[in-house]
């Protein structure tokens, strides 16, 4: 699913804020967010994806779980599992008992689940929109515009919890008319997780068919 690829980029850019700011208020908030995530050695989050097509008025929803450690990540969903050990990405499709293997270059990724929390670090102009209440919590609403206009999306809106300084939701506006929303429903940091968890082990999937696309 292409939108999962975008989500992957929304979640391993956990580094000091270096975006090109247009809005000092937005920059101040984003620096606090960056400082918060820099304290985490690992992240586990449950999320919900909602894809809305403005042309057909159709929608699609799915939930899953993501683990992040350094620039490694793993996503567990009912329709697929994605493993990335920094250099290689494995997409396992349970219904087909097939795993697709591709090279992964973090610098060239369009957006990665390691960037949902620090998407603003990857070539965006930012603008502070407002402070509102979302499910009983005060949140900052910030709009991001990609500097590179060839991207498949033209705008991203993020919500940042004012107390925890964490990204709680990101909404990606795609040029094809779809809007993809990612909402964090549960978040835990600094849980022990071994590097091996981010590597696909075919021994755990008897009979799996490997499709090497590298």
Helix content: 10-25%
CATH fold-level name? outer membrane lipoprotein receptor (LolB), chain A
In terms of quaternary structure, the protein is single chain
Identify the overall geometry: globular
Cα(first) to Cα(last) distance is: 18 Å
Q: Supply the CATH superfamily name.
A: Lipoprotein localisation LolA/LolB/LppX
Task: Give a count of the beta strands, DSSP E runs of length 2 or more.
Answer: 13
**Would you tell me the overall average pLDDT?**
84
Tell me which CATH architecture applies here: Clam
**CATH class membership:** Mainly Beta
* Count of domains: 1
The neighbouring-strand order within the major sheet is 1-8-9-10-11-12-2-3-4-5-6-7-13
The biggest beta sheet reads: 13 strands, mixed
The percentage of residues in β strands lies in over 45%
User: If you compute it from the alpha carbons, what radius of gyration comes out, rounded to the nearest whole angstrom?
Assistant: 17 Å
């Amino acid at each position: 699913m292409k939108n999962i690829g975008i989500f992957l980029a929304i979640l391993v850019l956990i580094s000091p804020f270096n975006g090109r700011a247009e809005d000092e208020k937005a920059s101040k908030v984003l620096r606090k967010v960056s400082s918060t995530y820099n304290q985490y050695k690992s992240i586990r989050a449950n999320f919900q994806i909602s894809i809305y097509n403005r042309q057909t008025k159709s929608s699609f929803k799915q939930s899953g779980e993501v683990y992040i450690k350094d620039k490694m990540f793993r996503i567990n969903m009912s329709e697929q599992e994605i493993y990335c050990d920094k250099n290689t990405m494995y997409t396992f499709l349970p219904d087909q008992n097939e795993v697709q293997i591709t090279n992964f270059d973090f610098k060239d990724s369009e957006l990665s689940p390691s960037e949902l929390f620090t998407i603003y670090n990857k070539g965006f102009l930012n603008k502070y929109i407002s402070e509102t209440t979302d499910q009983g919590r005060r949140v900052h609403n910030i709009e991001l515009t990609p500097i590179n206009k060839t991207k498949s999306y033209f705008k991203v809106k993020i919500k940042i919890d004012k107390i925890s300084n964490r990204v709680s939701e990101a909404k990606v506006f795609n040029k094809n008319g779809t809007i993809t929303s990612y909402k964090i429903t549960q978040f835990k940091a600094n849980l022990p997780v071994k590097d091996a968890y981010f590597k696909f082990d075919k021994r755990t999937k008897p009979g799996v068919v490997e499709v090497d696309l590298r």
